[in-house]
Queue: 2 jobs
Job 1
Amino acid sequence: MSNNVNDWLNEHGDYLYRFALARLKDTHQAEDAVQETMLAAIKNNSFEGDSSIRTWLTGILKHKIIDMQRKLIREQPVSDIIDLDAVNESMDDFFDKTGHWLDKPQSFDMPDHALEQSQFLSVLDACMQKLPKKLKAIFMLRDVHEMENENICKELDITPTNAWVMLYRARMGLRKCLEMNWVKG
Amino acid sequence: MLTCKQASQLICQSLDHPLSWYELMQLRLHLMMCGACNRFRKQLNILLIGLCKIRTNIENDSAIQLPLDAKTRIVEKIKSDQHAQ
């Protein structure tokens, strides 16, 4: 069996690691996710010939990543939950009492030029890291892992309304951050 | 007539589930007249495309490899688990 693992790691280890890193953004967590995937693959060798080994392993890895994300959210300290309440209260930051934009959204584009584009993407990445942890986690599950909303609610034990408010806040915050740090003039 | 606040919420919701016919009509009407909300909608799209690009850039970067020591550790871990059984 461990021969299998050697082969799998040699052929697919780098791919699985990058897949995990792109979603977890943390090298140690990404290594752990690959390890958990290998352990699960060995344990219930459910591979059936109708998909490639890589597809099969990636399927297991996806579950492991979501498990880890869920655990992270559950382990959030109370202070972060208070943080979220503060965020909810400031729902109206972006609009005046009559529902008009306080600061009208500005126009910006995804840069075509490679260097400029990579600068844009690193600003976006930095903005995402600045989101309150819980908002970031739900945002990651929805917009980065592309998990369905109803599944997120089930996983996180929150109501659809809560999930929607958190997602709305996260997206509003992100675009504002992009505006402030990217569209300077 | 929708306010910009309501329109922004519908735009955001439309990323997660299809809007009802009535919501869609209201939103279209608002977007025909409101440049700010049009820019907001475009911003959200760019944001999601950007996230997707960040992800695929990492996935396709062959310079990023599973570190050797991690590889060794994983193999050792599996060996020791199998011995324990």
Note: Chain B has one domain: 4-84.
Job 2
Amino acid sequence: MIVAERKPFEEIKELVKEYKKVLVAGCGTCVAVCLTGGEKEVDILKTELDMARRMEDNPVELRGHTIERQCDREYLEAFDSMVGDFDAILSMACGAGIQFLAERFPQIPVLPAVNTTFIGVNQGIGWYEERCRSCSNCVLGDTGGICPVTMCAKGLYNGPCGGTNKGNCEISNDQPCAWFMIYERLEKQGRLDCITRFTPAQNWENQVPRTLIQPGYKKPEKQ
Amino acid sequence: MRLDYPSNVKIIRVPCTGKVDVMYLLRAIQKGADGVYAVGCLEGSCHYNEGNFRARERIEYVNTLLDEIGITGGRARMYNLSSGEGPTFAAYAKEMTEHIRKLGPNPLKHK
Amino acid sequence: MKSESNLEKILEAGHFAFTGELGPPRGANAEHVREKAKPLIGNVDMVNITDNQTAMVRMASWAAALIAIEEGLEPNYQMVCRDRNRLAMQADILGAYALGIKNMLCLSGDHQKFGDHPTAKGVFDIDSMQLVNMVKTMRDEGKFLGGANIDVPPKLFIGAAANPFAEPFEWRVHRLAKKVAAGADFIQTQCVFNMKKMREWIKRAVDMGLTEKTYILAGVTPMKSVGMAKYMASKVPGMDVPDEIIKRLQGAEKGKVADLGIEIACEQIQEFKEMKGVAGVHLMAIEWEHKVPEIAERAKVLPRPVV
């Protein structure tokens, strides 16, 4: 899932200070699961903004609406009949959702209410951890299912570095050394040969915006 | 028991303080209440194990939200007692009322 | 000969190598580099010029290396993967060689979090092992990492670091083997304090035939004080300082701790001279460059061979 974190309230307030009518747009998928930008969080933000603006004698008209996914045209359509009434849209979706919304309504300022943080896992309610950097070239098969790009602070392909510290990373004693874990796991699986080979320089494919077209599908010529 | 407690306290019943959502509390202040508090079971005695702990955390969160909004002073509070403690309930109601009186009315009232 | 390096000549001739270290200043102060260089002249075969060590901005390693050359030292140009991508690395390697640098040490680099720009973007486009391999490909095949031909390949003597002490210990010698396979001509180890572990690591390297393929220089750092020993024991990741060392330093007479530190370093150097698989010593006298002549004298590594 994509994990995001709400921006500090002061920053959000600053973003919308010029506007009198604001639509707060929630997203019901990833950011709802990580308790950042779903229906409930839209409600809270809307209430906060309402109260804060009244306190400043600068009231704002607010409406909240949450759709299933802001990264899907099919759902974005629900906003079509709504946006005309607003000066700005405050989106609580991830960066992808915010951009897709902005692309659909180029005449209206679309502003982010969250910082998109990482692709991660749900460790417990309200507790998420990063696991993938979407590098486009997965090596998990050779590294015991532990990602060296994400979990090693230096993203080393031939680790561990000299800073590995009794199983922890040099950056913090709370951060396990990815390569220490890779070694331990592969050793238990009897697969250390996976990492005794030298791994050559990575061909980074995430340096330009990426597009994926599945086999059997085509990008339409012109919309 | 015919106990007196301040008549300005409006009671909303919930099955467990675990049901008290951030929005309930925030909405109360938004609509003009001067303060809002939850009265839950004693810590360790929740029928659902952690309902009252959740409520306490949410109340702390609501106070930070109110601070951000500019309504400071801790207008949300959590109290704990057991179901047989009528006098304690009345005492907490008085204590909360006094706390809020000291803070003065909800600044949103005249906005 | 793979390069025109003095260090390579000394090692090839079978001499016990003795190398030093010089940290560039946090400013454009060339005089400071010259001052630090002076006590090293004639006392070491080569001097490592650190590259933004501990992730603090300092004068560029190649620039300080050129000043060292002017002073009569042979520099070992350190390069970390933290601060540049493969384009900048290859450009700097060509430039360094063109201006007379003949040795290079390939490192990952301390994480930027430790330095004076903790929120900088760490580059780590390639890792230290891939850097070793890139320099080797540039030198031996005359090709850039991207595959294109280089008109004048940089004939550098390629170094890499090894830490015999970091966990998992079992893996350390295999990682050394990977670095050797990637193309490391010489290895400089992390500061050695735990001699027992070092002996075991070297033995394994000898058994695997690695010391036939690369030259291992053991890292030696003289302790200046008990505080320094304790700090290195507890605060420096990947460092292994046994309690015996700290106890021994604590037992020194008042005002004699530094002297004992040098004595311990000299004992280590003595043992390394006789240790099978060790080709030399890399002395890291941290902010103690002026003590190098005394240490070299007491360790009986003078005069340095001329080859």
Note: Residues 39-55 of chain A form the longest helix (17 residues).
